[in-house]
Amino acid sequence: MIAFIVRRLLGAVGLLLIISAVTYAIFFLVPRAAGVTSDDIAGRFAGKQPDAATLAAIKDRFGLDDPIPVQYGKFIKAIVVGDTYDTGTEEIDCPAPCLGYSFRTNQSVTDQIVDRAPVTFMIAIGAAVLWVLAGVSIGVLSALRRGTIFDRAAMGIALAGVSLPIFFTGLLSLAFVVHRWEILPAVNYNDVTDNPFNLILPWICLAFLYAALYARLTRAGMLETMNEDFIRTARAKGLPEKTVVVKHGLRATLTPIMTVFGLDIGLLLGGAIITEKTFSIPGLGQLALDGVNQSDLPVVLGATLTTALFIVLANLVVDVLYGVVDPRVRHS
After folding, report:
1. CA atoms of 220 and 100, how far apart (whole Å)
2. Which of 147, 187, 280, 305 is deepest in the core (most CB within 10 A)?
């Protein structure tokens, strides 16, 4: 198992290097191939109507006139050992891992990501706990009570949950739960780190979307697994039905669910963009969206690589857990 984890870690590092190279090429190589000059790229850092001196200074600071491989090498070096940026009035030290410097906000991209990450983590983890518990539980009960009123009602609600986007359920919940019925108080989401339970409404709305999917996946997996030979063997041995369902049936069903969960939690840790925009939450998703709207390339590049990192790490954890959850999995 240790050798497997080491191989997966080395593979994850290689994958992150490939992702960083492709992402960097999309932002800097593809525009050049389409005829965009270094002055045009520098203008995206400088804002509207920059003068020639400002463009020249930005090109010099970022090395935009250097060949793309040289620029990419400097970018990777900054991630590993850090870098120093000259703002024109002072030099800003950016320790490793340095993902760049935003001249629009006059902040290190790494500092902005670190500042926004706790909010996004609280959104993702809180919602994940809700949707896994609710989705898997409802899926198991629906499979065991196939064709009953409960099964049909649960799958009907699940279909609605999958179909309704978060910006619809989020705005609807704000309008009724907060403002009309006043079940929950209005919250300033800029201060949610002081009390994570202020995120209960975003958790519920986000969990409703994902729990519906997990309920359908669990139900389908349980229906298939409960007809397998090893389930009939377990029942023939006289094992309690709870043991048969949980230890044998559900355990075998969790493998595909864990695969999807790794992707979902990785994406959410990289930024729940729609949720954060709907509830005006200052997380990584809102940071990436602001970077896109302001053409702040360092922020967009840093947010993209951060999302990729979380997805790779989440899938690495899932791969390791395969051997724990499913005894049929063997690592050579």
Report:
1. 46
2. 305
Residues 167-178, mean pLDDT to the nearest whole number: 89
Structure token digits, residue 156: 């009907």
Distances (CA, A) of 324 to 29, 74, 166, 184, 271: 43, 41, 33, 40, 29
Euclidean distance between CA atoms 62 and 43, whole angstroms: 12
Q: Distance between CA atoms of 34 and 37, rounded to whole angstroms?
A: 9
Q: What is the pTM of this model?
A: 0.81
Closest residue by Cα to residue 217 from 158, 148, 149: 158
Closest CA to 288 of 15, 23, 17, 14: 23
Cα–Cα dist 60/47, whole Å: 17
Question: HSE on the CB side for 115, CA within 13 Å?
Answer: 11
Please compute the mean of the pLDDT values over residues 170-189 and round it to a whole number. Answer: 86
Each domain of the chain, given as residue ranges in start order, spans 2-108, 110-325
Residue bearing the bigger pLDDT, 101 or 113? 113
Quick check: 273 pLDDT over 80?
yes
Mean per-residue pLDDT, 269-278 = 85
3-state helix, strand, coil in the chain (%, to 5): 75, 5, 20
What angle, 0 to 180 degrees and rounded to 10, lies between the N-to-C axes of helices 200-225 and 149-163?
130
Which residue bears the tokens 């896994």? 132
Q: State whether residue 65 is helix, strand or coil.
A: coil
Q: What is the pLDDT of residue 329?
A: 57
Q: Residue 112 is encoded by which pair of tokens?
A: 């902005």
> 107 vs 28, 46, 57, 76, 214, CA distance in Å?
21, 14, 17, 19, 39
pLDDT tens for each residue of 200-245: 999 999 988 898 889 989 998 888 888 888 888 888 888 888 888 8
Cα separation, 2 vs 205, whole angstroms: 39
- The residue with tokens 């390791």 is 320
Burial 198-218 (b: 16+ CB within 10 A, else e): bbebbbbbbbbbbbbbbbbbb
SS3 94: strand
